[in-house]
Amino acid sequence: MTSFTTAANPRDYALTIPTGFIRLPVSELTDNSIKIVATHLAATFHQDYVDDNMRALAFALSTAVSQTVPDAVSFVGVGLFRSPEADRPIMVVLTCLSQGSDHGDIETGIAGLLEVHRQENRGSVEEIQLPCGRAVAVVIEDLNELTVAGSAPIPLIRRSVTAWIPDPHGTTTAVISLSSNNWQDWDHVCRLALDLFGTLEWS
Description:
4 helices, alpha+beta, 28% helix, 10 strands, seven-stranded antiparallel beta sheet, globular, 38% strand
């Protein structure tokens, strides 16, 4: 486990990131930042050294994720795990950011978040209770296709679960999201998400 604290304005928060996540350098890709990610990947795959394949994987992951995350993101990480149900890998992308808010109190903040996300109608929207207080969880499923020359399109299902957590002082909303293409292990991803959301502490 590692701790991460945002540099939010006006209020920051801390999270405990589960073991298995690697922080990705999406703001600036340098040789050194790619080497750091490649070293973590090598350790994840129980490889004693970093070769060209591992560096290429580190670069590909960092580049791909950087193209999909919001500009204001504070933390981006990728988690690599083994499915508890079968011999297959699970890759989970984690993003954390903060949004300025003026919700006055928790009741107002929750009501506003529920209204906005239900109007968007992009997925399921529910209020949840976390150790730090009330929050709104949004689950979205996107269906895309991977096209390979000479082959039929391959369907890609990407699901995300995002917690929108208003702070008690009405100044900030924490936005923490986990997403994965491993729909077969979605229950495991959701448990991972709830455990992670539960570690948030306002500073």
